[in-house]
Amino acid sequence: MFKANLGFFFLHLAQILILEALAWVIVWHFGSGWLVTIFISCLLTVAQAQSSFLQHDMGHLSIFKKSKWNHLMQKFVMGHLKGLSVKWWNNRHFQHHVKTNIYPKDPDIDVGPFFVFGDLQPRNVSGSGSWKGLHLCLEIRLEILDSSMLSEHLFFF
Using CA atoms, how far apart are residues 48 and 46, in angstroms rounded to an integer? Predict the structure, then answer.
């Protein structure tokens, strides 16, 4: 059950690389018109989402038997395909696992001032300088959700 299928992850990486290369070839061949831009944006969105899932598995050391290979491949996917820092992501992800969905400890649910949830976040955002009053326009009420759904899926609403 805990043995990773390396063929699956190889195909996963191959899919990402093919989508990235295909986007470049399409721009080179067809130019950068509106329809081409929209189409390659969809291709690159899928590639970036898939690379996020792949690097997440590598960050949890769940693909290769040696952690060194997981770290090396995570650096490749994060640094070269996504353009993000591995140290930054690991720091945020470790904080997320320590205090999952606990505001303000979990950085994954701290999405203010653009989206504010519940009763605590609007008060914190409105008291922070130039964002005062903005929460009236952006507040999302989650009272319709069951409290168990709220704690489990607060960020994914």
Answer: 6
